[in-house]
Amino acid sequence: MSRVRSPYSVKDCRAIDSLRIRARAERRKESSVGNSGAGDGAGKIKILVDNGEYWLRDRGDIAMMVMTVERLRERWPHARIGMLTDEPHILRGVLPQAEPVVANSGGDWGRSGLAGWLEETAGLHVLGPAAMRWRSATEVPKHYLRGAKDWVRKEVHVLSTGERKPEPAGMPDLPPVPGALADADLVIAQGGGYMTDVDLYQAHRTLNLLEAAQRRGIPNVMIGQGMGPMRDRELLRRAAEVLPGADLIALREGRRGPRLLAELGVAADRILVTGDDAVEFAYRLRRPCIGTDLGLCLRISDDFKVSDSARDTLGAVVRREAAELNTSLAPLIISEYDDEDRRHTLPLLAGAVRTRPAIGRAGTAQEVARQVSRCRVLVTSAYHLAVFALSQGIPAVAVTASQYYDDKFYGLADMFGADAAGEGLRIVHLDVDNLDGELSRAIRQLWESAPELRDALQQRAAEQIDANRAGLDRVYGLLAGGAGLPGGSAEPVQGEG
């Protein structure tokens, strides 16, 4: 039997030992060490951040996390910022300014003082990078192994009983509210598109957390949210119970979200439209010169079904257009969850005249945004790739195949002033009769108009960045003084007396 190698090299282990030695030398300065990161816990604001990506496999979600934590850290340099996750070592690697609050083991704050500092330092320099390398190297084998184990389990049951088990219905039981909530000073449900029927588990988990915060009198907000579609009766009932009690809900789009929140009973003065949290992340990586590649991403998932004929047509069109435009076809992989981007994008490159290499599995959100910056036009079914493109002044063709993605893309188009004329973001439905012609026309028109669209798109991005920061100013006002511990006279948000 082959052995599974340790994710930590000899060099990694030596680095850990070195950290332990340094820790002994720092023991006498334990109280001051706390200011460097995780902190000694005493006298620090504690901010608990929920999100829609506990597995840290989607670089769009990671980009939002990076911006949220950075902005909070700018305001409260010594706060303890706890990010809920199921991948603590990965989080240390991709988000060193936050500390993991491990959801599947009780969701408590990590150790403080010297032990917390040691964990943070080791996570940043050793454990985080090693965990990312290990997951990158083993993700595909583990994916297929899980599938094989499930198949074997089902077949054994059939052989032993003669009956095939029905697939389980509904969602799994929700976990308890994380223990870290008990002494949190602020709870933030950060950006994402999880408050919808498509992700009932995460939607209910977040609602439970917000409700628990409200019962304890803890300020609670939602930022960068995409709301809906929401037709599930139980989700509608719970949302109507909980969301009106949130101190602030900042939306990433203004086309559908405000109306849905109003129907759920949320007061208008608690609703803001600020744009996506990842806009500033991508905007910072814009290039002074226009790109030359044609970017491509096709994601097929449970909430985005695509027929074989539509997939084949999409591939044929982008290969043909890239050849006729004398440009390279660039595969853009933003999500590693279940290989949903790789499995469906990379085969479309077969037969292309010129292609760019795909990013490695351990690649960062910054690397993907830089790949986008080298494109003149994108064709994408992944929402955050369109965000990355538009924020850098790059037009995109969004292909959609569901109401969920319709809402995402039309809302994004509206935020960038592209809804009416289709300039900047052209939306093409994959079930349209003349898909070949629609796609070709959209790519060609945006390719020709890309230079003229660039400044206007970047200006809309800058406006959303300003709106996003203004929204966070409202959040800061929920804690007295903004830079210290919460007091008894927290500044009310607009509309509250």
TrEMBL record:
Record bears the keyword Transferase: yes
Entry-linked Pfam families: PS_pyruv_trans
Domain of life: Bacteria
Keywords, sorted A to Z: Transferase
GO molecular function, one term: transferase activity
InterPro entries registered for this protein in UniProt: Polysacch_pyruvyl_Trfase
UniProt keyword Phosphoprotein, yes or no: no
Residues covered by the Polysaccharide pyruvyl transferase domain: 60-400
Name listed for the protein in its UniProt record: Polysaccharide pyruvyl transferase family protein
Organism: Nocardia aurantiaca
Lineage, uppermost ranks: Bacteria, Bacillati, Actinomycetota, Actinomycetes, Mycobacteriales
